[in-house]
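Hey team,

Filing this mostly as a record. A colleague (T.K.) asked me to run one chain through the structure pipeline before their review meeting, and I want the input and output archived in the tracker in case anyone asks later how it was produced. No errors, nothing strange. Just documentation.

Input sequence:
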Amino acid sequence: MLQNIVNSTTIPVLEQVVNFSQARHTVLAANVANMDTPGYQVRDLSVDDFHERLAKAIDARRKPPATRSPGEPDYEPPESLAEVSENAGSILHHDESNVGIEHQVTEMVKNQMQHNMALSLMVHQFQLLKAAISEQA
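Output structure:
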């Protein structure tokens, strides 16, 4: 029951955003650390591909189930949200351009802002759930 309550919020989506941000931050930090390494190719995770996959997963969540048996929970976690993080390795690409450290640091800052925003929203969702459970809303 508690799992159904949590899964009916935006927490699973926010979890995917946090996981992606953490993985991307690791890749961007490696770019900065290896900037002076001869022959090192700058890498990144495709934000556009992640957003596209996440949007498809969210759309799949919104579709009502075709048939539901009596007593079956109102919400079933979609497999597509799990696929977003599982397929993160497939959206890794190598950038053939020579990007400067300023660009890498800018991308790290943008990524950190996305990560912090997702965590703030997640904390707010948990506070709402706590208030609802304790009937303090």
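Quick notes for T.K.: Residues 2-133 form one domain. Residues 101-133 form the longest helix (33 residues).
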